[in-house]
Amino acid sequence: MITLLKQEWMKAVKQNRFYIWALLAFIMPIAVLNTLIPAEQQFYAYYYFGGASIIVAIAGSVIAALTFTQEFGYGTIRPLLSRQYSRFEIFISKIVMIIVEYVLVLASAILGTLAGRAIFQMMHGTTGTDIDWQTFFFAQFMDVVMTLFFFAIVLLVSNLAKSSAAAVSIGIVLSVATSVITAITTYLVRFWEPFKWNPFTVQALLSQFNGSKMMNFQLKMYFGADVWVIWLVYIAYLLVIYALTFMIFQRRSV
Amino acid sequence: MSLLELRHVSKSFGSYKALDNVSFNVEPGRIVGLIGPNGAGKSTAMRAMTGLMRFDSGEVIFDEQPVKFSKTKALSKMGNLIEYPSIYPNFTAEDHMKYYAMDSKDPEDIHELMKLTGIDGPNFGKRKAKHFSLGMKQRLGIAIALVRKPKLVILDEPMNGLDPQSVREIRSLIQHLAEKGIAFVISSHLLDELQRLADDVVIINKGKIIRRATMAEFLSEDKAQVKVKTSDNHAMVLAAEAAGWQVKMSEDGEVLITAENGVNAQAVLAKATEANVEVQDIQTGTVNLEDHLMEVLSENSTRA
């Protein structure tokens, strides 16, 4: 497994150059926070990394989409699978590396935001630059947890389609259109109430989870179940989608 | 004990039988030529050998372990280049070697292997693989197949895109490695090349193995052929057929005579004299691998 992870890392750095995303995610908040965001809006801008959150989201979708599809595209899937490793080991190493790359890009955006904030404070003073650190880092943690769902969908599509273009497109669409999908699924709930348990609605509503009593109450009211039950359903969806993706990968002759 | 053994392997895609009860062995240090027309099942057989494809029945044993679809430890000692070189466009040749060498606790010396396969020159250097020519990619693919010190190397069309000089170098390298005990299964459309390289021949057609032999045996089956130009080809044909020989007319208007038990120029001249036919030119020779393969394939399709 360690060898597979090292190889995935080598591909991440030399083939896919994920560090370019990390670099962009670092530079963008510094530039945006110090040129476009006035003091009174600084506080809010920190939560979306001065606009770099979209870079993080697109980076996540591209990284996830390419992980499998490029192996099919380059024909490297054959040497990848005709080795001594099990397909499960290969699958897990890829998932781990997607998460590692995503977390590094996210960390880079966080560092860029903090650097941008520090520069802003030096130039314009500290007014409007307070951060509630607990809320800020909890939001980032939730982002990673919720992105696992998004990765699962992109990986499922990329294993079905084997096409980088299809997987990247769907990934990017999903990364910016989750609100649209959620709106549609929420609308459909009106016609059949149990539909509220569909994975998109569960993910969308849980993504707003912040641990507050008010949020717990709202979730409980909507689903008619305790928050832990909703989390359990979310985890079950994740496991099912990843298992389905693995089954497709496992059965594929190349 | 064979290094690789295919036992009654069958694989169908819908109603199409890609492999039909395929069995053959590969011994250590032997170079096996897997020959057949396009769509005969060569690549499918190679995919079955490397654990890339599920097959419907039969088994593949490599280094005393069954090759499974998902995990086979022994595959660490098998190198392959199937259909086209698998290359990461942004890697250099050295990156590829380092990447694939990680799979082995005891890989080949990367720089030595790069030198041997001719991928260490200024053309390679720090250039990314996306800028390589087909021949360069092919050399790199062969180097990748060798980097883990394999016991068996499976090469599908390894000479594709190589210039004559490179073909000669790769041929020498394969022969050198075979002398050291590494076995090869090679498919190629360059039959002259296979004739020079392979120790054994496995002929596959429509998913079935139709002949297995050593190259020497296979070529010794070649009937000597006598080519004669005469004053009366019709009379020569009748005389040759009366002697029980097989006769064909060449496109150049020569009579081509072969026989199961062999035929020589003296016997043909004697028959021509008996038939009062004047011989203007006579040449003897043997059928090469390509001709013989065509003959075997045509016999096979006639029987089918």
From TrEMBL, chain B:
Q: Does the keyword Nucleotide-binding apply?
A: yes
Q: Does the keyword Magnesium apply?
A: no
Kindly give the PROSITE patterns that the UniProt entry links to this protein: ABC_TRANSPORTER_1 (PS00211), ABC_TRANSPORTER_2 (PS50893)
Which SUPFAM superfamilies does UniProt cross-reference here? P-loop containing nucleoside triphosphate hydrolases
Top-rank taxon, per record: Bacteria
Span of domain ABC transporter: 4-231
Q: Tell me which UniProt keywords the record has, alphabetically.
A: ATP-binding, Nucleotide-binding, Transport
What does UniProt give as the signal peptide span?
Answer: none
Tell me which family the UniProt entry assigns to this protein. Answer: Belongs to the ABC transporter superfamily.
Q: Which PANTHER family match?
A: ABC TRANSPORTER, ATP-BINDING PROTEIN
Q: What's the protein here called?
A: ATPase component (CcmA)
Top-down, what is the taxonomic lineage of the species of origin?
Bacteria, Bacillati, Bacillota, Bacilli, Lactobacillales
